[in-house]
Amino acid sequence: MNTYIFLLPLYNDWESFVILSKDINIQMKNMNKTAKILIINDFSTQKPPSFKPLSNIKHIDILNLKKNLGSQKAISIGLKYLKEKNEKMIITILDSDGEDDVSKVSSMISEAEKKTQKVIVSSRTKRQEIFVFQMLYFVHKLLTFIFTFKWISFGNFSSFHSIQLDKILSNNSSWLAFSSSVAKNCVIEKIQAERKKRLIGVSKLSFLRLVFHSLRVNAVFFFRSFIFSSLYVFTLFALYLGGFQWSLYFILFIIFYNILLLLIISINNSKHFSNSLDFLKKN
Length: 283
Known about the structure:
The chain is an alpha/beta fold and 283 residues long. It has a domain at 3-134 and 151-201: Alpha-Beta Complex (Spore Coat Polysaccharide Biosynthesis Protein SpsA, Chain A), CATH 3.90.550. 45% of the residues lie in helices and 17% in strands. It has helices at 14-30, 71-83, 105-114, 131-148, 165-168, 178-185, 207-219, 222-241, 247-267, 271-274; strands at residues 3-10, 35-41, 57-64, 89-93, 119-124, 154-161, 188-193. The chain has a seven-stranded mixed beta sheet with strand order 3-2-1-4-6-5-7, with helices on both faces. The model has no long low-confidence stretch (mean pLDDT 92).
């Protein structure tokens, strides 16, 4: 018998979560199932509210982090915590701001139950951000494809059986980026879903945060990126020797890009992943 778990990283999005929890409850009620919600509180500066009982949510647990680590590390810690439970679970990861399309939860959970060897991910279709941000996000996906030959069009929103935890958490990839870890280690199946507007407030994902996120996603595939980069550099250098001076700028960009990936890897010390549960406050 599977336990149904919703895992949500959260930083100060308590008001959005209260609304989101009601939507999750409706989905579980429609499925005639009950679930638990596990919040990874990423060192929020705001205190959580008192939660009203919901018919199909057994309880809401909060794991508090000792410092702000970002959503990707919060998810990684949450997954490691669930792995130690050693239970049969269907785990669904959602962002706490309401941008994930909760109406897709039932179909994603159903697919995850039937296809335990796959991770069911939400492939984003229409997005609600401003045009500039959408263009930047497309550039991020394009760069990822150029350097890794992986088209990663999904984020955190996913459902999977707990037997996938070993794969997702292998090689410490989840410490950098959950989506890359899934793309690298798992067999995925995509369900299309629209990216919704935040329930309350404005997005915390600035241009700089998007750049760092893009670098973390690609850093998971550093060896692969290095191989393709080397091929590009050799080709561009041959063009440079042939008189195509512009190719030098691309060579410098590729070298600089790989240096940035190495810096990201060194900053996000994967050794911390081994003891990542130490970041949890003791209740």
